[in-house]
Design a protein that fits this description.
- By secondary structure, the chain is α+β, with helices and mostly antiparallel strands.
- 38% of the residues lie in helices and 22% in strands.
- Strands 1, 4, 9, 10, 11, 12, 13 and 14 form an 8-stranded antiparallel sheet that branches. The protein has a 4-stranded mixed sheet with strand order 5-8-6-7. The protein has a two-stranded antiparallel sheet with strand order 2-3.
- A hairpin with a 5-residue loop joins strand 12 and strand 13.
- Helix 1 packs across helix 2, helix 2 packs across helix 3 and helix 6 runs antiparallel to helix 7.
- The longest helix has 23 residues.
């Protein structure tokens, strides 16, 4: 089982699309849901003499794009481990996937964790993180709990590193859900388009600033400096927004409700409430704040037209293996 993670310094774009080797270093917080679970569970079972893999999503077999994504990831892991057998994959999730909540990160890290347990229960977390990244770049971070950095580099050098565990800081990520549906352009395709079509000056500045932002964010997390972290988070998010909007065609993941939530957060800050907002590749808004301010922020954000719910999340643990199986 694994959880999604929230990028504070975002991952967007690869130096190698097949292996998902990121073009910039990133930093995130692995999430644990307070008012609803944020769990993605995967069970693997060998398929005997079957000619292909089977993928069962929330009790129903999928034969389309979701299956293709899982099989692609399985094939990469089989290639690097020498494991040959076809598999039955069963999954269960408790939150919307494909809407910018890092569902693919949770799915790929859970799949890598399950695969590691199937082939060799002693596979270390660094290896699981590399395996997860080959399925979804940001999944490398969900293998670890708390605050995690994903390094760039060669294939064997790019993996998640836990900087602080989930008990380090009671930071809150309040996720304003304005649209739980599938986003217009999947992240994998969006990243490819940005790398190919975004003006070099815009994209190269985005890549160049990553290391500075990771260092600044890590320093703020170390001393639990919400304002310092929030400023870095919003600055990095606006660079991401610039990349998206300068991609051809533009990747405008926002809706009018997205903008209204962002405006509400600015109003809260003007009233003295430390809250900082941004998005991932989707219309939903992630708001970082402290635990003692969470109730007020949730109340105000729920007043914004178009907000369906607000998910309250805190730092959570990394991927782990369960005794109870889905198959």
């Amino acid at each position: 089982m694994a959880h999604p993670n929230k990028a504070i310094v975002i991952y967007w774009g690869n130096t190698d699309d097949h292996l998902n080797i990121p073009s910039r270093t990133s930093l995130s917080m692995t999430l644990c849901g307070v008012n609803r679970k944020l769990d993605y569970t995967v069970t693997l079972k060998t398929a005997g003499d079957a000619q292909g893999d089977r993928v069962i999503i929330d009790g129903s077999e999928d034969k389309g794009g979701i299956r293709d994504d899982f099989v692609r990831h399985l094939n990469i892991m089989r290639h690097y481990t020498g494991f040959k057998q076809k598999l039955i994959v069963a999954t269960k999730k408790t939150f919307p996937v494909g809407s910018g909540l890092a569902g693919s990160a949770a799915a790929a890290s859970a799949l890598a964790e399950a695969f590691a347990g199937l082939i060799d229960g002693g596979v270390d977390k660094r290896r699981v993180s590399i395996m997860a990244r080959r399925g979804s770049g940001s999944a490398a971070r969900s293998v670890f709990g708390g605050f995690v950095k994903l390094q760039t580099g060669a294939d064997e050098e790019s993996f998640g590193v836990q900087l602080w565990d989930e008990k380090h800081w009671d930071l809150c990520d309040l996720i304003a859900i304005v649209d739980p549906g599938m986003k217009k352009v999947k992240s994998r395709e969006g990243m490819r388009l940005s790398k190919q079509t975004c003006p070099k000056k815009v994209y190269s500045n985005f890549v160049k600033m990553a290391q500075t932002h990771v260092e600044q964010a890590a320093k703020a997390v170390a001393i639990r400096d919400l304002e310092g972290l929030g400023k870095v988070y919003e600055a990095d998010n606006m660079l991401f927004r610039a990349v998206c909007m300068n991609t051809k065609p533009p990747l405008d993941y926002w809706s009018s409700a997205t903008e209204d939530v962002l405006a509400a957060v600015i109003r809260l800050r003007s009233e003295g409430v430390p809250a900082f907002a941004g998005t991932d590749a989707g219309p939903n808004v992630h708001i970082l704040t402290g635990s003692r301010h969470a109730k007020k922020v949730i109340e105000k954000v729920k007043e914004v037209a178009g907000v369906n719910e607000v998910i309250h999340a805190i730092p959570g643990e990394g991927s782990r293996r369960l005794r109870k199986h889905l198959l």
